[in-house]
Amino acid sequence: MPTRSARTTKLDLRLSPEAKQTLNAAARATRRSVSQFVLESAISRAEETLVERRRFELDAEQWAAFMAALDAPPRELPRLRRLFSKPGPFDAPKRG
Predict the structure, then answer these.
(1) Between 34-54 and 17-29, two packed helices, what is the crossing angle to 10 degrees?
(2) pLDDT of residue 52 exceeding 80
(3) What confidence score (pLDDT) does residue 3 get?
(4) What percentage of residues in the chain have a pLDDT greater than 90?
(5) pLDDT digits over 64-95, tens only?
(6) Residues 57, 65: contact at Cβ < 8 Å?
């Protein structure tokens, strides 16, 4: 059984009357409170969103191309080299 952590933080939402009515109807249909329904729905959607950014799958050909790109020497980027050759706004002024 999953462990439950204490709910100590509050999230306020502003929504249209139509959106509230839809959430109320969905909560009733699933026999949950509106808070439970919204929280479970939001957490589920957040997990779906994050998993797409944490994990990706490649077939053998894509994996080989990915590894080749990682193993390749870095490309020369003249604009980036120029940028890093100039002092930045947080660099200490040169004393001469």
Answers:
(1) 90
(2) no
(3) 60
(4) 64
(5) 999 999 999 999 999 999 999 988 888 887 77
(6) no
Which residue type occupies 34? V
Where do we find the tokens 């709910």? 7
Whether 34 contacts 24, CB under 8 Å: yes
Q: CB within 8 A of 36, min separation 6: which ones?
A: 27
In whole angstroms, give the CA distance from residue 43 to residue 49: 10
3-state secondary structure 31-91: CCCHHHHHHHHHHHHHHHHHHHHHCCCCCHHHHHHHHHHHHCCCCCCHHHHHHHHCCCCCC
Encode burial over 14-23: b for 16+ CB neighbours within 10 A, e otherwise. Answer: eeeeeeeeeb
